Amino acid sequence: MSDASVERTPSSPGWGETVTMTMEDGIAWVSLNRPSKRNAINPGIVWEMNAVMDALEEDDDCKVMVVTGSGDSFSAGMDLKEYFRAYETAKPVARERLFRANAAWQWRRMMAYPKPTIAMVNGWCFGGAFQFLVACDLAIAAEEATFGLSEINWGIIPAGVVTKAVVDTMSLRDAMYYVMTGETFDGKKASEMRLVNEAVPLDRLKDRTRDLARVLMGKNPFVLRQAKTAVRQARELTWEQAADYLMAKSDQSDHRDPERGRKAGMSQFLDDKSYRPGLGAYRRD
Ligand code: ACO
Prior knowledge:
This protein is an alpha/beta fold. The chain has helices spanning 3-7, 43-57, 80-88, 92-111, 129-135, 162-169, 172-181, 187-192, 205-217, 221-236, 239-256, 261-271, and strands at 19-24, 27-32, 64-69, 73-75, 117-121, 124-126, 138-142, 146-148, 184-186, 198-200.
């Protein structure tokens, strides 16, 4: 692969070649689409994922974004040939641009994405794929999926922010074990270790993910965005800082919420007695 591949920028900022997207009743199903290469992440995927995220961000039809892989793979991680080997000879500026764009879609933008995000792990999930797996808000895996931090097997450490993602999500012991051994584990184990929210049989994966997306779509979208931002921020703060930040965030939420959800929810519970906040979302007319 020549420099030209690494230097490729989206000449037409679209997708469809290495990333596909299907919109279905508010859910954007986004698939890495190189099944014959186990959806290994090449520069094409980097540019196309950024393009699809740009588009979905401002598409009012998209309420939830699901990230998955075509065929029998979620993603075999970074493409050893088209990403790693090619960048060794690429011009530094092109290389930096590609790295920035990759970090953007895989975690920087993904963690702060304005729509709720679900990683649907349908099969092979290796190395670099852990970045966007962890950066998505929620994750559902097939019990049959195979995960691995394979970096140690070919003489590198899990870099980018893979190690950070893993130790931020799994226990220190589990993170250390899988980083050091490179052993694979299945979806059930990923769920036990809380790397994903839950694992279901592969033939139920899409239905379960759709059900979860529908639950999210029943909530106030503005408050949902505020809440997920607050979860990420609160992890990094002291208790005192968190108390102050969360009170300010809550005030901001009340002030800016176009639905005035808090008022509607209180009134439907206290005045109309038409719903139970403990058991579901308020009615959004
Ligand atoms: N980079 C580049 N090409 C890849 C990658 C990858 N990460 N993963 C798979 N491919 C390619 C193979 O080279 C092969 O290409 P070819 O048909 O042109 O020969 C094709 O995808 C199919 O791969 P197979 O190995 O034949 O598929 P199989 O189903 O037997 O095995 C598996 C799947 C286990 C995922 C295997 O492909 C593999 O080990 N891939 C590498 C996983 C890995 O270590 N990823 C990198 C992690 S490190 C990081 O991301 C920072």
